[in-house]
Recover the amino acids of this structure.
């Protein structure tokens, strides 16, 4: 669990991540929950009981609350990816207004 805690702490110290998260359609808690879920698959055997304990907010979190936040994060990710696919399929990703974002994505 210490490896996961350290990874989470380091992730949120990244200034670029902070800017991207601020401008995304996910809350910090949703992103953190999704990150914990992804990391716990690799590091935890009994992930259902341990995952809520890894969140950095000070509130005691139930598994149900953790799972609801995870579901919200997954819905937001699905919607964001569907939007990108929609724009690509309809040819609107080539729109000049989106060009700075495409360039930024390529640089990252």
């Amino acid at each position: 669990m210490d490896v996961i805690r350290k990874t989470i702490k380091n992730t949120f110290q990244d200034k670029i991540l902070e800017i991207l998260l601020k401008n995304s359609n996910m809350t910090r808690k949703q992103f953190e929950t999704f990150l914990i879920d992804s990391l716990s698959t690799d590091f935890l055997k009994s992930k259902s009981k341990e995952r809520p304990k890894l969140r950095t907010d000070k509130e005691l979190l139930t598994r149900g609350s953790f799972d609801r936040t995870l579901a919200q994060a997954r819905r937001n990710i699905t919607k964001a990816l569907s939007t990108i696919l929609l724009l690509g399929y309809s040819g609107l990703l080539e729109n000049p207004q989106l060009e700075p974002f495409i360039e930024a994505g390529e640089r990252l």
In short: The chain has a mean pLDDT of 90. DSSP finds six helices and no strands in the chain.
